[in-house]
Design brief:
Length: 106
C-alpha cells in the first residue's frame, strides 16, 4: 500500500499538488516545498532540485490521482524539476493512480 512505502522515511518529497498527502503519511517534507507547485519559476525550480539533491529521502511521491491544480500537471508546470527527476529516479510503486519513485543507485 501507498503509506507503507514511505513509513520508514523520516521525511518525504511530494511532487504532486495533492495537499492531503502530508496529513495521510504524517511526515514532514524533505524540501522547502511541501507542495511542488510552490516552486514555480526557474529560480525556485533550481532551489527545489538542490533540496532534492540534499535530501536523505530515497523516495518521491511523483503522482497522485486526487488533485491537479488548474488542470496543469506538475510534469508540465515544473518541467526542469520533472526532467531532473526522470533522469535520477525509477518507478518503485504504481497503484490506484499513485506513483512513487525511488532514487537510482549510481
Amino acid at each position: 500500500n501507498f503509506k507503507k512505502k514511505v513509513v520508514k522515511e523520516k521525511c518525504f518529497i511530494n511532487f504532486t499538488a495533492d495537499n492531503s498527502i502530508p496529513y495521510l503519511i504524517k511526515k514532514p517534507s524533505c524540501t522547502s516545498y511541501i507542495l511542488a507547485y510552490l516552486a514555480s519559476g526557474n529560480k525556485l525550480e533550481k532551489k527545489y532540485i538542490e533540496d532534492i539533491l540534499n535530501s536523505k529521502s530515497k523516495f518521491i511521491i511523483y503522482k497522485s490521482p486526487n488533485y491537479v491544480m488548474d488542470n496543469i500537471s506538475m510534469f508540465d508546470r515544473l518541467k526542469t524539476v520533472n526532467s531532473f527527476i526522470k533522469k535520477n529516479y525509477i518507478i518503485n510503486y504504481k497503484n490506484n493512480g499513485f506513483i512513487i519513485l525511488e532514487k537510482k543507485i549510481n
